């Protein structure tokens, strides 16, 4: 059944945006507060696809740390004599952690030489799994490189006698480490995946890890099973004059697209975007401060595509950079200065039903605290709206971290007014942001229920102490995440 268009007045607008769903809603088993990227700063990979792991085991990729003789000899004799002393093979030093890695740059000559075996075999396999949208496994699997935990757990042991050259003296290996792509392989695959987006780069000046490979970059939302879209016939547009020869556009007319938008105290409809030269296209403070839903003009409108009421639908125009933070995994920043109210980018993902979100939530690993679900419940109760899941498919905004003193805000924006439940989640700057500053928003802005549940003191101050987090964990079975935003007004914890 097609969804009926529901006219709504400002009174019916929920004063919240589609901020992240608390993961505990879908996974009541979460009890730990591990931050996966921080848990093992050395761990280089974060790969979530089963296909990837199984295709890796099929490939004959041999980790480089194995000796050439082990590479050649598929059968390893494990005989040890009583005199044999078992010692671990000394591990090669990993690259200096202070070394900067520009992930867009080609690897240097040496590393290319080293990666030869892995790259040739891995890239085609990854293309046919990760990059074709068949990413399916929500569990994060850790494939460690030579300097990581798994390697430590599964070392290759060698008898000191095996150093001798005689073939009678045996090479002894008790365990072969799991197969693993190198950081350079991951970088290459990640960049290939990222190349579908224009104007987004990635850089790591902290260590030599690459961003997770277990998701696909997409430009538009992917509509999931059971999600209904309004067809074209339900779409309507404004009748504003096409001829804006005298620079008269929707911003100066009573544009019908604003019919359901917020009104000022004296009942006026406010145009969402500034038409002034100085901050043209920036969201006006009325919307930004009020968190009101934005109704843009659309293709059914009589106005032109350069109408001042079309901003988010044109997509990202500023260059963004995914970068490694020192303590919160990956983050996002803009390479140019941003003005207050400037549109940055939309949150992209799969639009799924609540049943599907619940199913996915239940399948998650209990330790997995990363949450990429956003409720699309601006107009409906949580049970009726949809969910935007950026776990397996998404855009660069999935890397925006939480801050208790954020510089961005997420707004809800529609241009197909008939599709009231499917709208964009758009990020705007709430203050002038100098180029290179990390972009952040407040994850807890819409999870007041959880904060309320925590305690009355928390409700007032919104600060969660360690003790309160413990209480909340006991009472509710989930624990908020420890916040590392570093803001003076940091609340201590945030909800994911
Ligand atoms: C939507 S992801 C943001 C991108 C993430 N940093 C990454 O590398 O993919 C949310 C996760 O980032 C981390 N994170 C974000 N903000 C944080 C903060 N203020 N303090 C600690 N961890 C944070 C947490 O692990 C959280 O679950």
TrEMBL record:
<dbReference type="Pfam" id="PF05033">
    <property type="entry name" value="Pre-SET"/>
</dbReference>
<feature type="domain" description="SET">
    <location>
        <begin position="318"/>
        <end position="444"/>
    </location>
</feature>
<keyword id="KW-0949">S-adenosyl-L-methionine</keyword>
<protein>
    <recommendedName>
        <fullName>SET domain-containing protein</fullName>
    </recommendedName>
</protein>
<dbReference type="InterPro" id="IPR007728">
    <property type="entry name" value="Pre-SET_dom"/>
</dbReference>
<feature type="region of interest" description="Disordered">
    <location>
        <begin position="87"/>
        <end position="119"/>
    </location>
</feature>
<keyword id="KW-0808">Transferase</keyword>
<keyword id="KW-0158">Chromosome</keyword>
<feature type="domain" description="Post-SET">
    <location>
        <begin position="479"/>
        <end position="495"/>
    </location>
</feature>
<dbReference type="InterPro" id="IPR001214">
    <property type="entry name" value="SET_dom"/>
</dbReference>
<feature type="domain" description="Pre-SET">
    <location>
        <begin position="236"/>
        <end position="315"/>
    </location>
</feature>
<keyword id="KW-0479">Metal-binding</keyword>
<dbReference type="InterPro" id="IPR046341">
    <property type="entry name" value="SET_dom_sf"/>
</dbReference>
<dbReference type="InterPro" id="IPR003616">
    <property type="entry name" value="Post-SET_dom"/>
</dbReference>
<dbReference type="InterPro" id="IPR050973">
    <property type="entry name" value="H3K9_Histone-Lys_N-MTase"/>
</dbReference>
<keyword id="KW-0862">Zinc</keyword>
<keyword id="KW-0489">Methyltransferase</keyword>
<feature type="compositionally biased region" description="Basic and acidic residues">
    <location>
        <begin position="107"/>
        <end position="118"/>
    </location>
</feature>
<dbReference type="Pfam" id="PF00856">
    <property type="entry name" value="SET"/>
</dbReference>
């Amino acid at each position: 059944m097609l969804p009926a268009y529901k006219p709504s007045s400002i009174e019916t607008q929920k004063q919240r945006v589609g901020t992240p769903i608390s993961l505990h809603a879908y996974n009541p088993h979460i009890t730990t507060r591990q931050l996966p990227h921080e848990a093992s700063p050395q761990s280089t990979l974060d790969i979530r696809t089963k296909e990837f792991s199984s295709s890796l085991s099929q490939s004959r990729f041999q980790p480089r740390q194995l000796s050439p003789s082990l590479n050649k000899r598929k059968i390893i004799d494990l005989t040890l004599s009583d005199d044999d002393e078992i010692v671990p093979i000394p591990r090669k030093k990993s690259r200096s952690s202070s070394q900067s890695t520009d992930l867009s740059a080609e690897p240097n000559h040496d590393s290319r030489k080293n990666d030869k075996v892995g790259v040739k075999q891995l890239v085609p396999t990854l293309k046919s799994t990760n990059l074709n949208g068949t990413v399916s496994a929500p569990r994060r699997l850790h494939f460690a490189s030579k300097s990581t935990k798994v390697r430590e757990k599964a070392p290759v042991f060698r008898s000191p006698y095996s150093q001798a050259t005689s073939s009678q003296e045996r090479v002894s290996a008790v365990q072969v480490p799991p197969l693993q792509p190198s950081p350079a392989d991951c970088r290459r695959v990640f960049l290939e995946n990222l190349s579908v987006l224009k104007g987004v780069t990635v850089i790591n000046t902290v260590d030599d890890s690459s961003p997770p490979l277990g998701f696909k970059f997409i430009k538009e939302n992917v509509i999931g099973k059971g999600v209904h879209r309004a067809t074209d016939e339900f779409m309507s547009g404004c009748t504003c004059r096409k001829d804006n020869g005298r620079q008269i556009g929707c911003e100066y007319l009573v544009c019908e697209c604003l019919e359901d938008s917020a009104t000022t105290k004296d009942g006026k409809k406010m145009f969402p975007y500034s038409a002034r030269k100085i901050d043209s296209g920036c969201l006006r403070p009325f919307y930004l401060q009020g968190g009101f839903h934005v109704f843009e003009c659309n293709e059914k409108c009589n106005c032109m595509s350069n109408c001042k009421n079309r901003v988010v639908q044109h997509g990202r125009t500023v260059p963004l950079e995914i970068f490694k933070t020192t303590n919160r995994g990956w983050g996002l920043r803009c390479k140019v200065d941003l003005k207050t109210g400037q549109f940055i980018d939309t949150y992209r993902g799969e639009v799924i039903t609540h049943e599907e979100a619940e199913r996915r939530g239940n399948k998650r690993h209990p330790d997995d605290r990363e949450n990429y679900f956003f409720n699309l419940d601006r107009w409906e109760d949580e049970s009726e709206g949809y969910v935007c899941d950026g776990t397996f498919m998404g855009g660069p905004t999935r890397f925006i971290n939480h801050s208790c003193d954020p510089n961005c805000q997420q707004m809800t924006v529609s241009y197909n007014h008939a599709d009231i439940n499917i709208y964009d989640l758009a990020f705007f700057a709430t203050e002038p942001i100098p180029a290179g500053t990390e972009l952040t928003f407040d994850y807890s802005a819409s999870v007041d229920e959880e904060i309320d549940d925590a305690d009355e003191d928390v409700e007032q101050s919104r600060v969660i102490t360690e003790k309160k987090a413990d209480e909340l964990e006991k009472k509710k079975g989930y624990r908020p995440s420890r916040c590392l935003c570093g803001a003076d007004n940091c609340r201590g914890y945030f909800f994911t």
